[in-house]
Amino acid sequence: MSSWLWVRDGETKVDSSQLVSAALDGQKASSLLIDAQVMLQGGAFFTAPLLGSEQWVELMESTLGGEYLALVAELRPLAAAVAQSAGQMATTAGQFATWLGQAALIYASAESGAAQLAALTVALGGTSSLSTPPSTVAGYARLAGDYLSQFLHRSQEAPTLGLEGQAHMQNLAQQLAGGGPGGFTAVAAGAALTWGRVGDLFSSKREGVVIVGPDGTARWSTRSLFMLSTFLPISSSEPAKTKSGRTRDAVRLLTDIRLSSPVSADRANPAKSVLSGFEVLPKTVTPMRASTLLSRIEKSRAASDVGQIQIMKHVNRAGTTSWSVVLSGTQSWLPGAGNPQDMESNLQVVAGQVSDQEVAAAAAMEMAGIRPGDPVEIVGHSQGGAVALALATNPALSKQYNFVSVLTAGSPTGTLRSTRTLPVLNLENLADPVPALDAAASRRGKNTVTAYFDPREIGLNKKLTAHSLGTYVEALRQVEVREGLDPMTKSIEEWQDKRIENMGFTDETASEVIYFDTTRVR
Amino acid sequence: MFGTFNSSDVGHALGLIDHSASLLAYTNLTSWQGPAATSAKNRRAQLVGELHNLRVEVYQLRALVEDIEVLAAQLRAGAVL
Fold this sequence. Notes:
The complex is a heterodimer of chains A (522) and B (81).
Chain A: E1 5-8, H1 16-44, H2 54-60, H3 63-111, H4 114-123, H5 137-154, H6 161-177, H7 183-202, E2 209-212, E3 218-221, H8 223-227, E4 232-234, H9 250-260, H10 270-273, E5 283-284, H11 290-295, E6 307-315, E7 321-327, H12 343-350, H13 356-368, E8 375-381, H14 383-392, H15 395-400, E9 402-409, E10 424-429, E11 448-453, H16 469-481, H17 490-503, E12 510-520
Parallel strand pairs in A: 7-8, 8-9, 9-10, 10-11
Antiparallel strand pairs in A: 1-11, 2-3, 2-12, 3-4, 5-12, 6-7, 6-12
Chain B: H1 7-26, H2 35-80
């Protein structure tokens, strides 16, 4: 039976205080069983105190004595076995109590905020840094250092790191924004603006983003043009016109991109890597399982100035075409990056703004040839998941495309638009602070499922950090192995069933993948 | 008669196991609905069932200990004689 997975979906209702009481009952039950084990253990070491006198020896050699010794011989192993069972039950009851306590904290964090999370943590016998939150921004900076240290060094052993981090972020945002409505998004928007300006100083002013397909065709767009659903084709004869009126040599621009692109099959001769149209595409395995889809992200490569987006094209036996848009997480953490998968996009996404990465993904979708009505799913890790949900809930894009499924892994999605109809699965590692960076729990919608898991319980590779893609892929694989055995996986199975049905996947579906390179124009 | 172990100890252990099972069986989870709640309630039912099985084993242990105590008393009486 699963002891590591928690599901929060549209059906969930709970009083988290009640779960804390239940967890305390479970702790007490475990303690009583340990006492019982100790008592029963005495029988395992019982020695007949009857051989001390001649009379006793004589009696023990009698029929009655023989019967007595036989019973004592029977007693020891039985007492040992029963004591061991009591000990195992104590462990199981303790795990159950921990499980309930963890559920209480997850729900309190999602529904009631920082104060209730702190109160329940203490009620469960723990200590919480939330009980005495920092009173200054500098205090939060020190706290962030502590969190980073935990994240890097022992994040797998700190399963509530994400929950606490989220609550601290809520407190910090309230302090910065005076607790007003939309405080956090306002702070994030301000930070995004500042980050962008610092980046402009470090390199040069951003002037949109260029997306290059495997055939060398390219589009240029900006966040403003994206609002108008405009992605301008650029080629050697049609240079990209930037907002400032400067023109760039499109050929040089494209060559620069191809040279620095991780996609290029032959960096010494970029022309060789340019295919003629999308007719020659790498065949790939159809991602029937969600874990296969998520692990697809590993195939994307990136550099500080160039990112990559994959779009998979699937054609089933009936000739129906569907598409998977595959988005990686953050690749560049410094201001002034050329790769739009950077910190600036992170801040824009959690602020609810259009990001360059969203623009790039939308352009890639158009370049791939996705037609209205074709089923489209989007998967993303970290920033990619947040961008995935932003794309799928974008009103204009929702009219243009038939989004049928979203999968996010370790993504901050709490400040994004919610959806009632679109099947969404959010995966969150309880030890991963990244989903907490939006200072909000994932939205709960009728078709949105958020599954939390405890990394200690699923035998993860210790080399993986709590946020790594491999951690999330492994968690999904384990859910798939448990299929049909655990009621906890029911919501995830239902999401997966809808996904397969909506995408029109059959056993004979053929899949190809198109790689797009993306870079900011500077 | 067994020094640190006798049928009273087993009886006491049985009481602790009963108390533990009651705590788990009657702990209030009524406010909780959804797939995770179903899983938790199933897990609780499984735990209580396993504790019931343990209880049966401890009863057997107590019966054995009581048999030993009766025999020991008879032997002691024989020794006195």
